[in-house]
């Protein structure tokens, strides 16, 4: 049986439709996955949690798409009441790599010692951790760092050194209001 040109055109239309459907479904799935909430707040009152969500939203919008593009998957960001290291010292944050893969879980402490940390401080710490993961994934090399002008006030000097670095962060409250951390501030990074 001979084939005519209309048969070939019909096959080409079916193939083009199947490819278009596959592209649409894959984009919809990736859009849905990027919209799933990765933030888990396991502590705090309702007003504290809403203030934390408001402070952390710009950080998540800024850094999570960048990490997704580099192949790093932040599975969850969990705010827990307290964190402690292996020696029992209090920790501010913990970054856990899941079984040698490129998937991570970040845990943030809501309290450090007896004091509840402010939402802007928690957002600043989260931004530092996500920036660390991005630099590690993208193999970014810091070429130059400029120290702030000499100051005798230790609080001002240390607060200026801990500003989150990244696009769109110049006007964020976490960039300007970071309180001084206690001596027990250590990171436990397992990479």
Describe this structure in words.
By secondary structure, this protein is α/β, with parallel strands linked by helices. The protein has 2 domains: 1-36; 38-190, no CATH class. 46% of the residues lie in helices and 18% in strands. It is built from 5 helices and 9 strands; from the N terminus they run αβαβββββββαααβ. The protein has helices at 5-35, 46-69, 119-138, 154-161, 173-176; strands at residues 39-41, 73-80, 83-84, 90-91, 93-97, 103-109, 111-112, 115-116, 187-190. A 5-stranded mixed β-sheet has the order 1-2-6-5-9. The protein has a two-stranded antiparallel sheet with strand order 3-4. α2 (46-69) links the parallel β1 (39-41) and β2 (73-80). The longest helix has 31 residues, at 5-35. It is elongated and about 85 Å long. The protein starts with a helix and ends with a strand. The relative contact order is 0.14. Mean pLDDT is 75; it is low at 156-161 and 169-191.
Helix and strand pattern? HEHEEEEEEEHHHE
Structural class: alpha/beta
Would you report the number of β strands? 9
Structural domain count = 2
Discrete helix count: 5
Radius of gyration: 23 Å
Q: What is the topology, as strand order, of the major beta sheet?
A: 1-2-6-5-9
Uncertain regions: pLDDT < 50 for 5+ in a row?
A: 156-161, 169-191
Strand content: 15-25%
- End-to-end separation in angstroms reads 64 Å
Helix content, binned percent: 40-55%
Biggest sheet, open or closed, and with what strands and sense? 5 strands, mixed
Mean pLDDT: 75
> What is the molecular shape?
elongated
């Amino acid at each position: 049986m001979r084939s005519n040109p209309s048969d070939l055109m019909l096959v080409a239309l079916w193939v083009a439709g199947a490819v278009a459907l596959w592209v649409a479904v894959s984009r919809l799935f990736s859009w849905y996955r990027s919209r799933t909430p990765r933030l888990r707040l396991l502590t705090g009152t309702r007003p504290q949690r809403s203030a934390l969500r408001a402070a952390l939203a710009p950080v998540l919008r800024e850094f999570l798409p960048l990490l997704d593009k580099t192949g790093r998957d932040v599975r969850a960001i969990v705010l827990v009441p307290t964190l402690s290291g292996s020696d029992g010292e209090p920790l501010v944050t913990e970054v856990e790599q899941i079984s040698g893969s490129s998937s991570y879980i970040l845990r943030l402490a809501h309290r450090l010692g007896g004091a509840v940390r402010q939402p802007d401080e928690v957002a600043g710490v989260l931004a530092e951790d996500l920036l660390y993961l991005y630099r590690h994934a993208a193999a970014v090399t810091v070429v130059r760092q400029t120290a702030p002008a000499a100051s005798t006030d230790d609080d001002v000097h240390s607060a200026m050194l801990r500003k989150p670095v990244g696009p769109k962060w110049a006007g964020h409250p976490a960039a300007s209001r970071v309180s001084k951390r206690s001596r027990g501030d250590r990171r436990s990074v397992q990479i």
